[in-house]
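Quick one, T. Sequence first:
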Amino acid sequence: MNFIEKIKNAGVVGAGGAGFPTHVKMGTTVEWLLVNAAECEPLMHKDKELMQHYADTIVQGIKLAAEHTKAQKIVIGIKSKNTKAIASLNTAIKKANSPATIHEFADYYPAGDEYEIVAGITGKLIPPAGIPLDIGAVVSNIETLYNIARAVEDIPVIYKYMTIAGAVKNPVTVCVPIGTSYNEVLSLAGGSTLPAFAVIENGVMMGQQVSDLRKTVTKQTGGLIVLPADHRAITRYQKSTKEMNRIGKSACDQCSYCTEFCPRYLLGYDIQPHLVMRGLGFTAMGQDFWNQYASLCCNCGLCTLYACPEDLYPREACFQAKANMQVKPDHSKHKPIKIHPMKEYRRIPGKQLQNKLGIRQYDVPTGFIAEVYQPKEVRISLQQHIGAAAVPVVEVNELVQTGQLIAHIPEGKLGAPVHASISGRVQEITDALIRIEGEGEEYK
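Structure tokens:
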């Protein structure tokens, strides 16, 4: 079995983004292999912990990916503040005699944005609405490369590393089987310190508020942030889209701060949230003209959560604009991309962002639990990736073992297989999930 088949069969997908199947991304030849180790979401630490504890495995994954893509330039992009992780990587690189080098970023947001990583390391700009491959690069997340190294050893993706932070008793990074409920994951941090709290998955800036803690971990879950129920980051999103639009239409004074601080605008792309906000005052026909200025939005959240002095919702306006756009803009007709001369001076330092978000008090050292948590039951999603949902290959009441294939990729479709994350008996199969109840001595 070759490299591509191994990572395909192991179900490796992008662990730091949308879950794009890695076997497709690695099936190409490039000049650059860029490793995204920036981890820019406030309070998230799982990539840093992985680098500190499993640097040898990560470097092996980098080596395998570089060999297969024939990348001649291999660079790890990481924040300079993560000194222990950098030291671990340097030791592993030297031990493996790897050609990989380390590029250090300052602590700013969003250092981990794919376009930022490419521009900062290669000096090249991805074409508007393009992908790194367009300039001869592949970008992979730290945990993805860790999973690649394990896949070559025939170990499927059945566990997920997660940070639990915020208003919890013991902030920690843990390793849990895919399909574990968020309720159980929170218990590993001792639970919340508050009687009334809310939870955001995958980070305060780009994550989503969790409405049901029975929701389960997937290959894309990076962490849970617990905040007071009346925290600004929580209450802001309790407004309906109609309310957000009404407030924006009446209160936006077109100061353009949302645009001036936009990281993609500062890279030279034609994204202008303030013009999208202007469109809120128009009829649907008029809005379509202004909506084009949202097409290159990366959803980083700086405009809404940091830049806007009126606490409006330019990012959400961009969401709507992209969804409602009648005709996609032809970016090939735009003027050449040129980095804004003020880009370096408008970067948002991590601590400053935490202060604005009201989460600075939660930025404390976190623990790390290497031992895999063992839940009594898992509910494993069949759609943990871009592409078609996996198709079950097991039946109700069937006994399965940890790592066993339970759902495969539909014939001829883009997707990723799914494996049992615990040993036990299949109790339920739906179009969305497979539920397994643990059996054996460890569950008694």
